[in-house]
């Protein structure tokens, strides 16, 4: 299970949302890079991880626990699988929300073999009792399992094979301090540069057997919100368009026409991104406004607005997070075809 499986993010999103539609998951699996050397971009995280893995291999010990943080679709799940692959280990996959009871985690932990990688996706959503059990498991490779209830309850110590925990989160700030402290390494995933997304697109097109021209790839890359998952999704939509309305080749022309049909604008903003900006500007005068108020205005969950939309809007220079709330930048007003307030002519006052 992975973040892709959470229904709540999957609702009411446009075809280019950061999380995949069902039925496209198999395709996504086929497009995942398998080795660190195939993993495009994230030079910093890649170099850091290479060192962590290589030195662990030389010492013949499982590496320190790894936390990967960043917005959806940047390659956290792919990297965790690569970590297992590079270590020649088996990966066991679960997620924070699936670990509701400490017993669920105990069962998972007791089944680990030495050197296994345990991947916990959306680890910030783990329930408290499971989280506390995880502290001990990460530090001492043992847990205390409580059997029975009330005065008769006893706790049985349970040894766990030395393993490596890889946690992924879209909100590292939501992790408790004690949990964060138990990771030996945190990789912060950044949005990708358009040139890196071009490479992702050429690789994916080759795997899917889609003919693509460099201009076509550049256009899709530019409009993919810095996110490989979105680049891959847009590639498939442009391919559909190219097959139905043209000769099947992804060119600059087919890319532009298709992205127009799918409501992806010049900056790659999708419907929800634009709805957030519009609400901010039109209903709240550009802010500041709290994120939950903004989320209600666009009919989305606050978490989706905060974790899926905002990071890219901030990065694109459209939105600022201030202590008093979210604020639209002048660029956001202009992007919506409006004049930013400071540049608007002053309204005449009574005394003029
Ligand atoms: N660095 C990369 N190079 C090539 N493809 C990538 C890369 N990162 C992500 N992808 C593609 O994007 C998709 C989503 O990545 P994923 O690892 O599921 O992201 P996350 O877990 O952060 O949401 C993958 O299926 C893969 O095809
Ligand atoms: Mg994932």
Automatic annotation (TrEMBL):
Record bears the keyword Zinc: no
Span list, region Head domain (RuvB-H): 266-352
Domain AAA+ ATPase: start-end pairs: 62-195
Binding, ATP: 31-32, 73, 76-78, 139-141, 182, 192, 229
Location of this chain's protein in the cell: Cytoplasm
Enzyme category, top tier: hydrolase
Segments of this protein annotated with the region Small ATPAse domain (RuvB-S): 193-263
Keywords assigned: ATP-binding, Cytoplasm, DNA damage, DNA recombination, DNA repair, DNA-binding, Helicase, Hydrolase, Nucleotide-binding
SMART domains: AAA
EC code(s) of this entry: 3.6.4.-
UniProt cross-references to CDD domains, sorted A to Z: AAA (cd00009)
Positions annotated to bind Mg(2+): 77
GO biological process: DNA recombination; DNA repair
GO molecular function: ATP binding; four-way junction DNA binding; four-way junction helicase activity; hydrolase activity
Keyword flag Methyltransferase: no
Catalyzed reactions: ATP + H2O = ADP + phosphate + H(+)
Similarity comment: Belongs to the RuvB family.
PANTHER family in the cross-refs: HOLLIDAY JUNCTION BRANCH MIGRATION COMPLEX SUBUNIT RUVB (PTHR42848:SF1), PTHR42848
Domain notes: Has 3 domains, the large (RuvB-L) and small ATPase (RuvB-S) domains and the C-terminal head (RuvB-H) domain. The head domain binds DNA, while the ATPase domains jointly bind ATP, ADP or are empty depending on the state of the subunit in the translocation cycle. During a single DNA translocation step the structure of each domain remains the same, but their relative positions change.
Subunit architecture: Homohexamer. Forms an RuvA(8)-RuvB(12)-Holliday junction (HJ) complex. HJ DNA is sandwiched between 2 RuvA tetramers; dsDNA enters through RuvA and exits via RuvB. An RuvB hexamer assembles on each DNA strand where it exits the tetramer. Each RuvB hexamer is contacted by two RuvA subunits (via domain III) on 2 adjacent RuvB subunits; this complex drives branch migration. In the full resolvosome a probable DNA-RuvA(4)-RuvB(12)-RuvC(2) complex forms which resolves the HJ.
NCBIfam families, sorted: PRK00080.1 (NF000868), ruvB (TIGR00635)
Functional note: The RuvA-RuvB-RuvC complex processes Holliday junction (HJ) DNA during genetic recombination and DNA repair, while the RuvA-RuvB complex plays an important role in the rescue of blocked DNA replication forks via replication fork reversal (RFR). RuvA specifically binds to HJ cruciform DNA, conferring on it an open structure. The RuvB hexamer acts as an ATP-dependent pump, pulling dsDNA into and through the RuvAB complex. RuvB forms 2 homohexamers on either side of HJ DNA bound by 1 or 2 RuvA tetramers; 4 subunits per hexamer contact DNA at a time.
Protein name listed in UniProt: Holliday junction branch migration complex subunit RuvB
Organism of origin: Thermocrispum agreste
